[in-house]
Structure formats: structure tokens, C-alpha cells
Amino acid sequence: MNPSENADDSRPGVSRRSVLGGGAAVAVAVPLLVTGAGAEAAPVAEVASADLVPIKVEVNGKPVSVRVDPRTTLLDTLREELELTGTKKGCDRGQCGACTVHVDGRRVLSCLTLAATVDEREVTTIEGLARGDRLHPMQQAFIERDGLQCGFCTPGQIMSAVGMVHEGHANSDDEIRERMSGNICRCSCYPFIVDAIRDAQKVMR
Amino acid sequence: MRAYTFTQPRSVREAVAHAGEGAAFLAGGTTLVDLMKLDVMAPTRVVDINRLPLRGIKLDPDGLHIGALERMSDVAVDRNVRRDYPMIAQALELSASAQLRNMASIGGNLLQRTRCGYFRDVTTPCNKREPGSGCSALTRINRTHAILGTSDDCVATHPSDLAVALVALGTDVHLATAQGTRTVPLDTFYALPGSTPHVENVLRPGELVTGITVPRSMWAANSVYLKIRDRQSYEFALASAAVAFEWRGRTIKQARIAVGGVGTTPWPLPAVERALAGQPATADTFEAAVSTAADGARPLSQNAFKRELLRRTLVRAFTVLAESR
């Protein structure tokens, strides 16, 4: 975990986020290169890394248009551009599950998803689960069952658990453990996480 | 991550026109994005193929056809796959995590890179990543490395579970370039490391995997994929076995077998298949058949245990199949 994670909004001076945000605004004017590609093919936009790719995404039900470096992950776009910092950067290598979000309803790792590939798709993050002040049943169950200590992995755990219930594979404790194995909890709250998911899936059904 | 040009073609023709030396196709991204961050892979051009029409899971008289962009989780839950090719569904569900299975494509799975820690660490020598730099695993940490198909230049284990099942079932891989298409049997698709471990398969520059065909057979429906690993879930195999039997009464008419976690490629075991053919499904038959399974193995300082683990994994897989008959 980045030790400055919780200090993002309170740090004095120039923050990492404001630098990146400024960079994006400047780069909006960079034109796209268009090259011919194949005799019958319609031209395919060819984008150098210095250029930004325009994407339209529905994030938590709201349409969003941003321009992203083709190397930028969905995780960094959510956190740095859209300021949705509920989704956490743990390993940034696809191994810990902290960055789990839903793309078109499927649970995926936002750290291994390039933002440029989610154009025209729907993204749901932890911020999009609750309905107003009413928590999602999975969020409520994690609180009631004490399914967290430090809480850093919790957004990923909850997004993954909701995805698993929708997949129809939360029918026993063993199945929950197997299908949640991609979400690591360094505080080792696993027994309470299983309890929470078992409770929530009954409500969600 | 190094800079690259980025394209999102909508047809195979466009995609292969954009490919070639220095280019990488992007599907699920679970290997490529990871390795680009680590600077292990540094393509100058990334071709996002997710808009190509390489989808579909179809069963017909020739067999099972799977588009290269189908995701692992979707193939694993397909009704026909589960009924007629259970080892494929099992190999998929025992791979990675649920999130990764939702992302990773079938074509990409066949091309995933080794998990050798030295391959993934650009500060250490690795002949696969940097030809001629040397192999760190030969003399250092090598517990999870291969014992079969190794060379003095590379001992990296092939990581895919799915490929092991597909080799056992005689799968064909369909490929496309700007010059045309071709089909290659999966068991000749992968290259042994030899003195060129950076060459992992027969793909030509810019060649795209478009799909696979798993033939119909008398044994695919009676099949199992057994995976042995350090953790119960979300871990690569120390040893795995993909086994299919065709039965005649209580006798094994013929067997198809490949193993994973022990080889530099998915490793077929034709001698063990022959030793089972025509034999009754008994413990004695199984023990005798696996006696040659690790022949030719070249254990390293930390992985000699894999010889016996391989034999035990096979016997357990045979036993599971016999008991489920």
C-alpha cells in the first residue's frame, strides 16, 4: 500500500493528482493520427503514446468522457482522473484483487485493464453500489459481520463478492472461499468475509 | 511502461495488417499489461483485438470450436464443454482467480508467459527475456521449475492449465497472417527451449491466434484435470494431469494423457498412454503405467520431488476417473 494513500486530499502544495489532471487538460488539443489500414478496411485510428485516446464510459450510471494515455489503466483513470478513490491500488500486478470493479457487470481487475479498452462500456465501482444512503446488502453484511480490519482490501472484496453472487457461485462456504481466492486480505479477515457473503447472498437472491 | 502506438481494428484483416515485429496483440491484458509494467515486454505497437469477431463456443460433428477471444470463465460454464469435455472446464476453473478468468482470453491463455521469477525480474539474467544473458534459475531458486524438456539455457515451466488439457485432447490451433490462414496441432505449436528459449512457439511475426478446434472423441467426455499446488486455490501447478479414458467394460480401451507444472511445454505422455491401453483399471495397472512418466527428467537443486509428485498425481487422476465411471 502506498503510505500516502490517505493523505492525498490533505497534502500541501502540488499533488500527484493535480499534476496528472493538468497534463490531461493540456493534451486535449493533440490531434489523432489517422492512417489507411488494409484495402477494404475503414481507416483505423493509430495513436502514439504521446496522444490521448478519447473514451466514453458509463461510470456508476453516469456518462463520462475522458481522454486517456493508451498506457493508462482503468484503475489509474478511476482514481486520478475521475477521483473515484474507493477502488484501491494494492499490488498493481493483478495478484491481490484490491482493484476489483465491474465492467459490463463482470468482476475484473482494473489494474490490468487498459482504460482505452473500456470505451462504450459500463463500469461500476464501490462508489456505485449503494442506493443513496441505503447500503448494498453486501456492504451492510461486511459491517454487520465485521468483515474487515484495516479496510484497504474491502472495496475489492465487496465488488468481487457481488460479482460472485451474480455468477451464481456462492452456494457453500467452500465455494465462496474458492471463488474469492483472488482477493487477498492482509489482516486475514477471511472467516468473517465468508460469513458476510453468506448472509448477503441470501438477501440478494 | 514504455511508449507504444495503439490501434483498435475491427477485423482480422486490419489486425494482422497492423501486426509484425515489435507489435503485440492485446486481448484480456492479464499477461501483456502485467509484463509491460514490469518492462519484461516492451512492444512498440499494441493492437487491441477485442473488437474482432473471434467469439463463439460451438459444438458440431467435427468437435468443439472456440473463438480466440472467448473468455476463460465463459468457456468454463458452457453446457456442452462441461458435458462433453469436462477436463477443459476443470482446467479453466482451477486456473488463476475469478476476476482473471473473466478477463483472460482462450487465445491469450495459450500464449501466456512463464511465471519464472527471473523472467519477470529485469534485474536478473534470463535467456528467455534477454537471449545470451544466462539462466538464473539453473543455480538459484528453482523449486517450481521444469524437470522435463529443459535445456542448459532455460528451465522455465509452461504455466497454462488449459493448454495441458487441450494437448491431451488433440486440439488444433487456427492462425492468421496477412498472407493467409493455417491450422497447427497444439502438440507441435510449442517449442522446446533448447538454445533459443525466447522462441516459445511456431507463431510467425504478426501471426494471430483466431480460434481452436477440439475434436470429437470417445474419451473426451470421460476426462479429468487434476492440479496439485502449494495452495488450494489461486496458484500455479507444481504438477497437473489431464487424463481421458475410453472404456470397454472395465478395461481402458485407450488413454490420452498430458501433464503440466513439470515441463517447459505442456507435456504429452504417449508411453504411459500405451501402458494403459487394453489394461484393467486397477491400482496395479496404474502403478506400472506411471513408472516411466518421469523418464528423461532432469531435476534441479530444489525440484527433484517433482518426479515422484508427477507419478502420484497421475495415479490419483487415474483413480478419480476409474471411480467416477
Element layout with pairings:
The complex is a heterodimer of chains A (205) and B (325).
Chain A lengths: L15 H12 L5 E3 L8 E4 L5 E7 L2 E7 L5 H8 L18 E4 L2 E4 L12 E3 L12 H8 L9 H14 L5 H7 L10 H15 L1
Parallel strand pairs in A: 3-7
Antiparallel strand pairs in A: 1-2, 3-4, 5-6, 5-7
Chain B lengths: L4 E3 L4 H7 L4 E4 L5 H6 L7 E4 L8 E4 L2 E5 L4 H5 L2 H6 L1 H8 L4 H6 L2 H5 L51 H7 L3 E6 L2 E6 L22 E8 L7 E6 L10 E10 L2 E10 L6 E2 L1 H7 L2 E2 L2 H7 L15 H19 L2
Parallel strand pairs in B: 1-3, 2-3
Antiparallel strand pairs in B: 4-5, 5-8, 6-7, 6-8, 9-10, 10-11, 11-12, 11-13
Keywords (chain A): Iron, Metal-binding, Oxidoreductase
Pfam families (chain A): Fer2 (PF00111), Fer2_2 (PF01799)
Protein name (chain A): 2Fe-2S ferredoxin-type domain-containing protein
3D architecture notes:
The complex is a heterodimer of chains A (205) and B (325). With 205 residues, chain A is of the alpha+beta class. Chain A has 6 helices and 7 strands, in the order αββββαβββαααα. In chain A, the strands form 2 sheets. Chain A has a 5-stranded mixed β-sheet, with helices on both faces. In chain A, α3 (137-144) packs antiparallel against α6 (190-204) and α4 crosses α6 (190-204). The model of chain A is unreliable at 1-42 (pLDDT under 50). Among the domains of chain B are: 5-48, Uridine Diphospho-n-acetylenolpyruvylglucosamine Reductase, domain 2; 223-323, CO dehydrogenase flavoprotein, C-terminal domain (Enolase-like, domain 1, 2-Layer Sandwich), CATH 3.30.390. Chain B is built from 11 helices and 13 strands. Chain B has helices at 12-18, 32-37, 72-76, 79-84, 86-93, 98-103, 106-110, 162-168, 270-276, 283-289, 305-323, and strands at residues 5-7, 23-26, 45-48, 57-60, 63-67, 172-177, 180-185, 208-215, 223-228, 239-248, 251-260, 267-268, 279-280. In chain B, α5 (86-93) packs antiparallel against α8 and α9 runs antiparallel to α10. Chain B is globular. Chain B starts with a strand and ends with a helix. The relative contact order of chain B is 0.13. The interface between A and B is large, with 42 and 37 residues.
